[in-house]
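USER: If only I could read backbone structure tokens as easily as an amino acid sequence. It would mean a lot if you studied the pair and described how this chain folds. Here is the record:
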Amino acid sequence: MTDTPTPPATAREWHLVSRPVGWPEPDNFALVEAEVRTPGEGQVLVRNEYLSVDPYMRGRMSAAKSYVAPYELGKAMQGGAVGEVVASNAEGISVGDHVLHFFGWREYAVVDAKTAVKVDPQAAPLSAYLGVLGMTGLTAYAGLLRTASFKEGDSVFVSGAAGAVGSQVGQIAKLKGASRVIGSAGSDEKVKLLTEEYGFDAAFNYRNGPVSEQLRAAAPDGVDVYFDNVGGDHLEAAIGSLNRDGRIAVCGAISVYNNTEPAPGPKNLARLIQTRGRIEGFLVGDHYDLQPQFVEEVGAWVRSGELKYRETVVEGIENNLDAFLGVLRGDNTGKMIVKL
């Protein structure tokens, strides 16, 4: 093992300096030098190696009340990160260990040891703990199997299907015995990826025509489960194609995150009466009890090659903001990762 380098006196971190209205702009953010602190009792100092950027972070940039506290102005933002412990003042975590934590958007982080999760770089690439084996992976697993009550033989539709969560939802559904899996994505290249690499039965480019028409063509017998990452016209289309006792798990609504006015709801909600359909929102934080089962089952699929994943890697802390904006634009295929 290589020697752990001595931490520098200062390191870079991203601050939110003003709250975006509509689409985030570069002047809402600042990359600043900050003191690298010595860990206190029960804390560790981590040199971050990989950072996560995710759509939910847009919500934390607003002051509106939500399920998680907004980012504070003038302070470092937060997000998933994995890195090497370079100083430890806590039992159970040693210098040289690698940990997963939620103090991203910075090069070095002081972390309470009780909130850090040790990860094994020999079992999987470190970046995988931010995606396929991390929060996005557990989101896919819990949303499909618990919230949407997936069962063998179901027909499943996934929006944002080439993203980190969506691509995993479709593959888990196939591995668990779905009768048909359909995905939507924003480019012909991503559609090809879904059918040729991820094993989706059908996929379509939502930019090529009305989603409702494309979904009916791809799922002529309707859908039993819809995993919603997009909202808007995708949600309305799924309600229109929902079978009797169909279930919709609402994970995200990226199509409306930067709207300055409330988006209109689906016009066909009354159809849920005749289908006895169910729509349920969920947060991954409510399902961490599934973590051991998830890591065991999905980890085995990843090692065997049965479950495939992609990462879009952007290098350098200075490009963290560009990577985040890229996620909102849909530039990524699979999980967007920033490598430091």
Observations:
- The CA atoms of residues 133 and 295 lie 6 Å apart.
